[in-house]
Amino acid sequence: MQFALEKEQREIKIKDLHEEIKILMFSTKEQEYSEQILFRNVSENYEKVVKKQDMIRFKNLENDHEVLKKTNEDIQKDNSLLQSTIKYNSSLIVELKDSLSKESEHLNKIHIIKENSSIYNENQQENSDLSERQNKAIKK
After folding, report:
1. CA–CA–CA angle 50, 51, 54 (5° rounding)
2. Mind listing the pLDDT tens digit for each residue in 45-86?
3. How far apart are CA 129 and CA 140, in angstroms?
4. pLDDT for 2-31, tens place per residue?
5. Which residues contact residue 94 at a Cβ distance below 8 angstroms, ignoring those fewer than 6 apart?
6. Sign of the CA dihedral 85, 91, 96, 97?
7. pTM of the prediction?
8. What ranges does the record list as Basic and acidic residues composition bias (predicted)?
9. Exposure of 114 in the CB half-sphere (CA atoms within 13 A)
């Protein structure tokens, strides 16, 4: 009798253990399913974040490109202005050289005239002195 009672208690315990195993297996499957869903959600969110970051990077690149285009246009305008200024300054330099050359020529002529005038005055003085001596010599 005791043996039958123990056997019955063991069978009840075995049934209880089977039930617990079923519950645990169901719970484990449910947990695996939850983990799969969680993993999928995390993956989807990660993809969304990556796409968002890519969009932001692309937008930043577009903005940078626009800024660089504008900067390049500004540089081209500045370069064009500098080219014009260089041409204008070059023509001014040519004019100044020409004017300086003419002025130098004019100053050389004035210098020659002054020298000639000085020589003429010296000659006049010598003529005057010679005339005086000639007159003195004639009078003697």
Report:
1. 85
2. 889 999 999 999 999 999 999 999 999 999 999 999 999 999
3. 17
4. 767 777 888 888 888 788 877 766 676 777
5. none
6. positive
7. 0.46
8. 130-140
9. 6
